[in-house]
């Protein structure tokens, strides 16, 4: 932190907001120059010539923590940002993505709640990048580089069970192939899942993986669905095609690069676990992104951490208006640019949490499809202001990790959960599927690519 102290005299001179080196965009878009007030050039550090920030001392540690989990050889990011020369060569684009807050990808609204594993950059960090670029991107002294241990091979501390499809699958649909694979659950007694991660066969092709639990009662439906389609697995989009009204059905989601973020595709909070019964089935949905890569055969495996007993048996609680799901009462008319639906209820009045007791909310996920604009889940407290759980003001279908609340929220009977979704079904916001831009159609709840959803998911436990 020592270098931040060195900024202080500069800030005192230029009157910048505390901690943020003041840079303003000049005529060239995306390229900042230093604010003219005080006549300071970035290289002038209170008179000394030494640059304020250098690659080895300041920027590399930031890129290591916030970019290189994805932008390194073999990872999901489209290019490597591990080395000075690579970052310098891409500097205008890199700076623009950082200042525009597109990278690192973190879409949770900042004024809603605090999360473990929040990978977004602070204003100070963004300011540092801008300053460094405006200063001519000094490399600095390699001897000042901090050690950067290799990225961990796996997110979980142990792999107790690994499941895999019987053979590799060759994605066929472009630019996106969403495929569900049915995996038998081999355990012969009740076990608790305490951690989940996907082990993609081809890390550049696999965009995300979601695992679902299918109960013995619904297993045949899934097998029938699997059999109807030729080839390994079947096409599925928003869900595996069977929704469990009761019981845990969401087991976890995984996206590459979030391994270090802690909250996704990794371990549940200590003491929590999701019960799996003998005879259950696991369905994994794998999203292959074939936009730029030639499809190649992939065999993605999933790994679980298991316990026999846990302190707080937990579950994912899905939350949506039942009338949307079963009554088609979530109309999104063709051509309308601002369609909103919302729903609020005290969930302790209904199964599966109808025991009238308070419960803890640990992780929160939100789910819509391709026409979504924004989504928000909050608690309307009987007393006091609402508690926002997760807000995605600028919905992006590719950003759906579960966010872990820094402090679990205690939900009390009498309070209400409130979900609000907004869609844009105008021509300007139509997705392109298999290379063609679709024209607006009337939409409603459904699990196809061109249907919509407005779903909240909360990892809950007793107190
Ligand atoms: C969780 C994974 C992940 C992390 C972390 C991440 N990126 Fe990316 N980045 C991607 C992926 C995937 C793409 C390509 C798809 C896209 O554009 O969203 C991308 C695209 C980009 C692009 C080109 C597209 C654009 O929006 O300009 C830039 C530049 C970029 N990343 C820079 C960065 C920088 C700088 C960081 C760290 C401050 C970072 N990324 C962190 C995954 C990541």
Q: How do the helices and strands follow one another from N- to C-terminus?
A: HEEHHHEHEEEEHEEEEEEHEEEEEEEEE
For the biggest sheet, the summary is:
9 strands, mixed
What is the CATH third-level topology name of the largest domain?
Jelly Rolls
CATH architectural group of the largest domain = Sandwich
What is the domain tally?
A: 3
Distance separating the two termini? 39 Å
Name the CATH class of the largest domain: Mainly Beta
Spatially, the strands of the biggest sheet line up as 3-18-15-22-13-10-6-12-4
Rg (C-alpha, Å)? 24 Å
Name the CATH superfamily classification of the largest domain.
Copper type II, ascorbate-dependent monooxygenase, N-terminal domain
Average the pLDDT over all residues and give the rounded result.
85
Number of strands: 22
Percent strand equals 25-35%
Give a written overview of the molecule.
This protein is an alpha+beta fold and 463 residues long. Helix content is 15%, strand content 29%. It has helices spanning 2-14, 55-66, 84-89, 91-99, 123-134, 219-228, 322-327, and strands spanning 23-25, 32-34, 115-116, 161-163, 176-184, 191-199, 206-214, 234-235, 250-254, 272-276, 281-289, 301-307, 312-319, 339-345, 359-367, 372-380, 387-392, 403-411, 416-423, 432-433, 436-437, 455-461. The strands form five sheets. Strands 3-18-15-22-13-10-6-12-4 form a nine-stranded mixed beta sheet, with no helix packed on it. Strands 8-5-11-7-9 form a five-stranded antiparallel beta sheet, with helices on one face. A four-stranded antiparallel beta sheet has the order 14-19-16-17, with no helix packed on it. Strand 1 (23-25) and strand 2 form a beta hairpin. Heme C binds next to helix 4. Heme C is lined by residues 66-67, 69-71, 76-78, 81, 93-94, 97-98, 102-105, 119, 257-258.
């Amino acid at each position: 932190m020592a270098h931040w102290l060195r900024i202080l005299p500069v800030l005192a001179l230029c009157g910048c907001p505390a901690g943020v080196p003041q840079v303003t965009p000049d005529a060239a878009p995306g390229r900042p120059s230093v604010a003219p007030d005080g006549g300071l050039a970035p290289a002038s550090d209170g008179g000394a010539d030494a640059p304020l920030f250098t690659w080895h001392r300041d920027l590399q540690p930031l890129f290591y923590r916030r970019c290189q989990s994805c932008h390194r050889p073999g990872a999901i990011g489209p290019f490597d940002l591990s080395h000075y020369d690579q970052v310098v060569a891409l500097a205008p684009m890199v700076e623009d993505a950082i200042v525009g807050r597109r990278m690192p990808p973190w879409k949770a609204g900042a004024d809603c709640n605090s999360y473990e594993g929040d990978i977004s950059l602070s204003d100070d960090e963004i300011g540092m990048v801008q300053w460094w670029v405006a200063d001519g991107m000094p490399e600095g002294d390699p001897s000042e580089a901090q050690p950067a241990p290799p990225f961990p091979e796996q997110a979980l501390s142990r792999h107790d069970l690994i499941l895999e499809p019987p053979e590799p699958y060759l994605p066929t649909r472009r630019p996106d192939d969403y495929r569900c694979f049915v995996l038998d659950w081999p355990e012969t007694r009740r076990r608790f899942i305490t951690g989940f991660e996907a082990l993609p066969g081809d890390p550049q092709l696999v965009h995300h993986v979601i695992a679902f639990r299918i109960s013995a009662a619904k297993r045949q439906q899934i097998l029938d669905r699997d059999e109807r389609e030729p080839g390994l697995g079947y096409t599925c989009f928003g869900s595996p095609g069977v929704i469990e009204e009761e019981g845990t059905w969401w087991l976890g989601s995984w996206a590459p690069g979030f391994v270090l973020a802690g909250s996704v595709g990794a371990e549940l909070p200590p003491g929590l676990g999701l019960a799996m019964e003998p005879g259950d089935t696991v369905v994994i949905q794998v999203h292959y992104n074939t936009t730029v890569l030639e499809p190649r055969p992939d065999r993605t495996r999933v790994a679980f951490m298991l316990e026999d007993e846990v302190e707080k048996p937990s579950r994912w609680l899905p939350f949506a208006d039942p009338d949307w799901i079963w009554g088609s009462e979530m109309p999104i008319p063709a051509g309308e640019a601002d369609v909103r639906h919302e729903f609020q209820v005290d969930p302790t009045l209904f199964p599966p949490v109808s025991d009238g007791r308070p419960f803890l909310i640990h992780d929160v996920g939100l789910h819509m499809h391709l026409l979504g604009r924004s989504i928000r889940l909050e608690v309307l407290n009987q007393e006091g202001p609402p508690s926002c759980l997760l807000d995605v003001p600028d919905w992006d279908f590719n950003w759906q990790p579960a966010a872990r609340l820094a402090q679990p929220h205690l939900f009390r009977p009498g309070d209400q959960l409130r979900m609000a979704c907004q869609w844009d079904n105008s021509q300007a916001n139509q997705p392109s599927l298999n290379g063609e831009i679709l024209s607006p159609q009337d939409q409603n709840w459904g699990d196809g690519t061109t249907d919509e959803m407005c779903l909240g998911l909360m990892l809950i436990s007793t107190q």
